[in-house]
Amino acid sequence: MDVILRIFWGFLSTVLFGGLLGLGLAVASRKLKVEKDETVEALDGALPGLNCGACGYAGCGGYAEALAAGKDDDLTKCKPGGADTLAGIGKILGVEVDTDAVRMVAYVHCIGKEGIASRSYNYSGLQDCNAATVLFNGDKDCKYGCLGLGSCINVCPTNAISKTGDGLVVVHADLCISCGKCVDICPTGVMRMIPEDADFVVACNSRDKGKVTKGNCKVGCIACKICEKKFPEAGYKIQDNLSILGYDNRGPGRADAVEKCPVKCIIPYKEVKVRKASNAG
Question: Which of 69, 76, 101, 110 has its CA 20 to 30 A from that of 28?
Answer without folding.
Answer: 69
